[in-house]
């Protein structure tokens, strides 16, 4: 896939699809749906559209209903929608915009108008995406930041509480990081942070979330992952970090892992258990992985 924006064209008349495609295919990647249900399916599928051109009058599910459905879904609510329709009264346009559409183009299709309005909305979407990315990512490591981590984690915990499943959390703390800064300066410290972040992010699955939690601490949310699988992954990451040597700087890290308990545990408590496991890893001599559950069992026995 290239860097072109992706536009989803939705119309039950093939001639209209062909007209829209003729205006846009040179500059954008196109996806096509000829009914509302298919539109919703494609809107949720990668690549997520950057813009949807949506007909209003369609059988079974009209464009207004499709718009309501998309705007009620967290995964599609931010996709801008332009209605393209023969309904040309002021009242119709006002209604479409009230539903959340960003623009309203009336038929017959005029290529110059379509091209100009689509171009404007794509620029606005790209600017919005850039601002959102800056707000959710750590600028040094480009990992997600603490704010995004907590928001995403609470959402995952709520889903698991409703539907079941497993979730493990891994907390990573770089060992002796203050000494790294003292010996190599903050530039050396930044080099270490970026190198560790690269190891953590390069090994994660699509459903995992890797975040810089603060300072030299990182957190990984491991969706659909048991504590035993998390332990195995943590050991692989620990070994990779130990062998990094960014710009000749020796680096190790201590890992604490915990699995969400099936008794309504909240993320804050889950994270606290992983943090306690990191503390125990430090007590054990650093550069090791500690499971919160195992340590709890040892203390209770």
Automatic annotation (TrEMBL):
Keywords: Nucleotidyltransferase, Phosphoprotein, Transferase
Domain of life: Bacteria
Domain GGDEF residue range list: 165-294
Modified residues annotated as 4-aspartylphosphate in this record: 55
EC number: 2.7.7.65
SUPFAM superfamilies named among the record's database cross-references: CheY-like, Nucleotide cyclase
InterPro entries: CheY-like_superfamily (IPR011006), Diguanylate_Cyclase (IPR050469), GGDEF_dom (IPR000160), Nucleotide_cyclase (IPR029787), Rev_trsase/Diguanyl_cyclase (IPR043128), Sig_transdc_resp-reg_receiver (IPR001789)
Residues in Response regulatory domain copies: 6-122
Pfam family, one: Response_reg
Catalysed reactions, semicolon-separated: 2 GTP = 3',3'-c-di-GMP + 2 diphosphate
Keyword Transferase assigned: yes
Enzyme class: transferase
UniProt GO MF annotations: diguanylate cyclase activity
TM regions (residue ranges): none
NCBIfam families for this protein: GGDEF
Protein name: diguanylate cyclase
Species whose genome carries this gene: Shewanella nanhaiensis
């Amino acid at each position: 896939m290239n860097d072109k924006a992706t536009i989803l064209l939705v119309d039950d008349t093939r001639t209209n699809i062909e007209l829209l495609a003729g205006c846009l295919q040179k500059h954008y990647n196109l996806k096509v749906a000829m009914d509302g249900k298919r539109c919703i399916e494609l809107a949720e599928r990668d690549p997520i559209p950057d813009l949807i051109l949506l007909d209003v009058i369609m059988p079974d599910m009209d464009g207004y209903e499709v718009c309501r459905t998309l705007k009620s879904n967290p995964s599609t609510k931010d996709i801008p929608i332009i209605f393209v329709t023969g309904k040309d009264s002021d009242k119709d346009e006002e209604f479409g915009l009230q539903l959340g559409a960003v623009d309203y183009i009336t038929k017959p299709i005029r290529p110059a108008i379509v091209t100009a309005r689509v171009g404007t909305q794509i620029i606005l979407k790209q600017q919005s995406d850039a601002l959102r990315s800056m707000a959710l990512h750590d600028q040094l490591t480009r990992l997600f930041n603490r704010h995004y981590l907590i928001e995403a984690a609470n959402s995952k915990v709520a889903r698991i509480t409703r539907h079941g499943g497993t979730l493990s959390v891994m907390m990573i703390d770089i060992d002796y990081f203050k000494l790294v800064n003292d010996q190599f300066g903050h530039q050396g410290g930044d080099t270490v942070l970026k190198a560790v972040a690269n190891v953590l992010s390069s090994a994660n699955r699509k459903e995992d979330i890797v975040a810089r939690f603060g300072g030299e601490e990182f957190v990984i949310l491991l969706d659909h992952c048991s504590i035993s699988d998390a332990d195995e992954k943590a050991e692989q990451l620990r070994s990779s970090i130990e062998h990094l040597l960014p710009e000749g700087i020796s680096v190790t890290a201590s890992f604490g892992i915990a699995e969400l308990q099936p008794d309504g545990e909240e993320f804050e408590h889950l994270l606290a258990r992983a943090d306690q496991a990191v503390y125990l890893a430090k007590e054990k001599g650093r550069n090791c992985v500690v499971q919160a559950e195992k340590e709890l069992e040892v203390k209770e026995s």
